[in-house]
Amino acid sequence: MRKGLGQAIEKLYETFSTYPFKSTMEGCPCCVSNSDKEKIHSKQLRQLDGDDLSRYVFKAMTTWGDIDDFKHYLPRIFEITATTDFIVDIFVVLGKLEYGKWRTWPLAEQEAIENFLIEWWTDDAANKPYFDKDVFFEILKLNNNLDGLLDNWVVDTSGQSFLKYVDFVHDHYNDLVSRRSEFKDLTEDSWNKLVNWTRLNSDKLEDGFFYFEDRDKELAEKISTTLYIFERTI
Questions:
Q1: Could you tell me if 149 and 126 are in contact, meaning their C-beta atoms sit under 8 angstroms apart?
Q2: Judging by beta carbons within 10 Å of its beta carbon (0-12, 13-18, 19+), is residue 211 exposed, middle or buried?
Q3: FRET partner for 1 with CA separation of 20 to 30 A, picked from 70, 160, 188, 232?
């Protein structure tokens, strides 16, 4: 984990620490069992794991607890989502912000979340070798800051950020230029920015091929295929 993400997570804990733990939370008896309740009450906030919180995340604010309850658990939920293979889909976790109308929350809370989102993406861009479209598009949906996402995806031929770029072009470039899948919902301006950013970084594909040609032949073959995909759709 990058230092920036760690600091952003700590800021979430600090900002939302004013929302206390409740020994009981109202929950629909048809949806929330005593076992479910025991899980989130069994440990201190920072000790709760994905299994403890998964049921709560699905039910938070709809049939279990209110917004203040969700704010209490938010730092740990977001930390687990950003740093582990949480079993709850990202769109479910981040969708709780929209459900809770987070843009009406106090400014300090909004800023802490915005900072976390961009640091999460920056960490993901630097350390994950594959393009996770759910992370990218769900964060973009919330912060509407494509420039920030692209500025923090620095494509380094010898780093994981390059592998993510290769994966992005290899698996998603045809959808991007054809405006299919998630890309169809981008505004014209955002679509143009993403296409232009992709093309501006395309020279690194050839550099990467020669860099990995003798280091990782399987990856070099994927890069070669990616070059073909890119050149065919220019």
A1: no
A2: middle
A3: 70
Q: What are the Cα distances from residue 94, in Å, to 10, 68, 97, 160? A: 18, 16, 6, 25
Residue type, 198: T
- 126 and 225 share a domain? yes
Residues 150, 182 share a domain: yes
What is the domain range of residue 218? Answer: 121-232
State pLDDT tens for residues 81-138: 999 888 889 999 999 999 999 999 999 999 999 999 999 999 999 999 999 999 999 9
**Is the CA virtual torsion 61, 64, 118, 85 positive or negative?**
negative
Residues 189, 217: Cα–Cα separation, whole Å: 38
DSSP string, 87-100: SS-HHHHHHHHHHT
Contacts with 220 (C-beta within 8 Å, 6 or more apart), sequence order: 209, 212, 213
pTM for this prediction: 0.91
10 and 54 housed in the same domain: yes
pLDDT in tens, 36-60: 778 888 889 999 999 999 989 998 9
